[in-house]
Design goal:
There is one protein chain. The chain is mostly helical and 105 residues long. The chain has four helices and no strands. The protein has helices at residues 2-22, 29-50, 55-78, 84-103. Helix 1 (2-22) runs antiparallel to helix 2, helix 1 crosses helix 3 and helix 3 runs antiparallel to helix 4 (84-103). The radius of gyration is 15 Å and the shape is flat. The two termini are 14 Å apart.
């Protein structure tokens, strides 16, 4: 159950990061409310996951899911730059997430 909570916490991190971009510095109401709601839900699920997962593992995987998800959203939905160096950085983040998960089994 902790891993499922952590997964959804990471997915909500992608939601709030994306909504924050669309809030234009919290000057638009709807994206600002989505940002705050998704943040609260993400933190709550992270806290739930941390009841049984190690801090370093949970936090690293949570931020990794958010980072990779925001990276993909930026490329797909916002037309951000795709370069070999950025792809390599994303691959290294995913490798770190996988190693962190394997080390906690």
């Amino acid at each position: 159950m902790a891993w499922v909570a952590l997964l959804f916490a990471g997915l909500l991190e992608i939601v709030w990061a994306t909504a924050m971009k669309y809030s234009h510095g919290f000057t638009r109401l709807t994206p600002s409310l989505i940002t705050l709601g998704a943040m609260l839900a993400s933190f709550a699920l992270l806290a739930l996951a941390m009841r049984s997962l190690p801090l370093g593992t949970a936090y690293t995987i949570w931020t990794g899911i958010g980072a990779i998800g925001a990276f993909v959203v930026g490329i797909v939905a916002m037309g951000e730059l795709v370069s070999p160096m950025r792809i390599l950085a994303a691959v290294l983040i995913v490798a770190g997430i996988v190693l962190m998960k394997l080390s906690s089994s």
